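Colleagues,

For the teaching module next term, I've prepared a clean inverse folding example: a structure given as tokens, and then the sequence designed for it. I'd like students to try predicting residues themselves before seeing the answer, so please don't circulate the second half yet.
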């Protein structure tokens, strides 16, 4: 995995790296490896994950077919614009 650092902006590069790792599921995998998981618990978890995935796919298909309403788009707060300071001479 590779992240480019532009203009020495390490904070943004770190944010991008974390987002990529989140999407890849690295954090979830690390959390699972912290403690031993019994084979029976692993089977239960994997079965539950499969059910969750199939329900999600069915829900998405129903939304595309018009049987369910589409989710409302999330409103993102507007980014504050940088304030430009203009100095005027008042003499």
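(Answer key — instructors only)
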């Amino acid at each position: 995995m590779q992240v480019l650092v532009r203009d020495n902006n390490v904070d943004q590069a770190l944010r991008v790296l974390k987002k990529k790792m989140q999407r890849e599921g690295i954090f979830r995998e690390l959390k699972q490896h912290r403690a031993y998981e019994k084979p029976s618990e692993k089977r239960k978890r994997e079965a539950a994950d499969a059910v969750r995935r199939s329900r999600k796919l069915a829900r998405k298909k129903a939304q595309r077919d018009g049987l369910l309403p589409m989710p409302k788009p999330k409103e993102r707060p507007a980014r504050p614009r940088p304030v430009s300071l203009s100095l005027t001479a008042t003499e």
